[in-house]
Amino acid sequence: MVSHSALDFKVAVLYQAGPTPSVGGVSKPPKPGGYQDSGADIAYALSTSGVGVVTPIDSPDPALDAGWSFPDHKEGVLEAVKKGANVLWANTTLYATHPLVELREELAKASVSLVGQDPRDTERFEDKEYCNRWLASQEGLEKAFPKSWLISKEDSAKLESVNLPAVIKPVRGRGSHGVSKVETLDDLKEKAAQLWTEGNLVLIETFCSGEEITVTVMPPGDYEIGRKEAHWALPLVTRFGHSSGIAPYNGVVAVTANSRAVTHDEFLADPHYQEAARLCEQVGRYCKSLAPIRIDARRISDVGEGRRFQLFDVNMKPNATGPGRPRRDDQASLTLIAAQAMGWSYPALLRNIIRAATPFRALRV
User: Fold this and answer.
1) Exposure class string for 309-329: b at 16+ Cβ within 10 A, else e
2) Are 68 and 319 a contacting pair, CB within 8 Å?
3) Alpha-carbon gap, residue 355 to 21, rounded angstroms
4) CA–CA gap between residue 112 and residue 126 (Å, rounded)
5) pTM (2 decimals)?
6) Which of 1, 110, 194, 290 is the most buried (most CB within 10 A)?
7) Tell me: the pLDDT tens digits for 56-68?
8) 215 touches 190 (CB < 8 A)
9) Burial 243-272 (b: 16+ CB within 10 A, else e)
10) pLDDT by residue (tens digit) across 123-133?
């Protein structure tokens, strides 16, 4: 990974232009608009903070999502580079056959860098069951994840072996889509039947009833605060205001209304917070993440030894919304809430993410 000053770059943001391929009979549901809302937030904030930004049209309207980012198909990527972009911010869902992989050598020759994960790694780790199971097999993370069950429609009888209460979710989900807490076997069967209409597998995890936090892990790089040689965690963010045991989707309730940063004094006073940060940094190192990732965790309970955290969701593309455009003042993401706790504004967070952009020539073959 090579780090730079953000002001050296001309950035083009990519959005998801179409559905992702099915993997093992399971597809990730697309977000309406393909993340053009956060793409516009990113491009606008960068353009107002001295960073060069390339857009598909001249002078896009800050009040609109469209016009700030390029579609992530092959033609859109090449158009962005033709217009002068030397950084592609992959604000989209990546997968092993993504056009960025097909164009890797061409982009490397053009000295283009990537903000985002290696698409081939993303496809593996966006399978939540595989990701958690693989990480739990790594040294130091053996007890970091809750007990889980992966059940297909054909093996529906196995639902009766699940310990309740539990959380049921899609294997390749987005946000809180399809995530439910279930208390009874009948409820579990009903929710599983609904999810089986989207894919052949469901993931079920033991429900942890304690405090929920989320941890953003940054990759190594030269940041405005100095050089970081290893993956490092931003301040923790605590979540509250759950609905039926689950944090609501940020499109329904803005995270600024149900989340706040854990204070430095709170962090120092609670060894379980400190352990959670260390575990999440390990996740970043094992996944070899090249851009921010966000890991959700909950205390097993809020009593005694149950106060330790279990990691339950690794997000390879955290939400990147932020204020600046009209009617977006309440759109700080969880990662931005964490960054603000260490004194970074939204543009400062984006600049620092760009400083750790990965040249395409550095991606593995």
Assistant:
1) bbbbbbbbbbbbbbbbbeebe
2) no
3) 31
4) 25
5) 0.94
6) 290
7) 999 999 999 999 9
8) no
9) eebebbebeeebbbebbebbeeeebeeeeb
10) 899 999 999 99
